[in-house]
UniProtKB/TrEMBL annotation:
The modification Phosphohistidine is found at residue 78. Mg(2+) binds at residue 81. This is PTS mannose transporter subunit IIA. InterPro entries: PTS_IIA_lac/cel, PTS_IIA_lac/cel_sf. Coiled coil: none annotated. It comes from the Bacteria. GO terms for molecular function: metal ion binding; transferase activity. Its cofactor is Mg(2+). PANTHER family: PTS SYSTEM N,N'-DIACETYLCHITOBIOSE-SPECIFIC EIIA COMPONENT. Binds 1 Mg(2+) ion per trimer. Keywords: Magnesium, Metal-binding, Phosphotransferase system, Sugar transport, Transferase, Transport. SUPFAM superfamilies: Enzyme IIa from lactose specific PTS, IIa-lac. GO terms for biological process: phosphoenolpyruvate-dependent sugar phosphotransferase system.
Length: 106
């Protein structure tokens, strides 16, 4: 059963990380088009996906802390990479949106 839970957590990281990155990209595109309301909403959506991804990751970390060591597979590493990339991308998207917003106000 633990193996199934770990697989679900890994897939959650990949899915939610991917969703966050997609929403962040859509936020940038919206800001580029001058639709800052949509851009802001997409960032909120990205951040909600990141929270869900963190829940998946926390489950894995809790298992590890309880002594239930998780076998690290390429899929596990890939899931962590997805999360880290999504976090970085969302942070950068916020900065890019801010730049578009400033250009729009000039």
């Amino acid at each position: 059963m633990e193996e199934q839970q770990n697989l679900e957590a890994v897939m959650g990281l990949i899915m939610y990380g991917g969703n966050a990155k997609s929403d962040a990209m859509e936020a940038i595109a919206a800001a580029k088009a001058g639709d800052f309301e949509l851009a802001d909403q997409k960032i909120v959506d990205a951040e909600e996906s990141l929270v869900q991804a963190h829940h998946s990751q926390t489950g894995m970390l809790t298992q590890e802390a309880q002594g239930n060591h998780i076998q690290v597979t390429l899929l596990t590493v890939h899931s962590q990479d997805h999360l880290m990339t999504a976090i970085a991308f969302t942070d950068l998207a916020k900065e890019i949106i801010d730049l578009y917003r400033r250009m729009d106000n000039e």
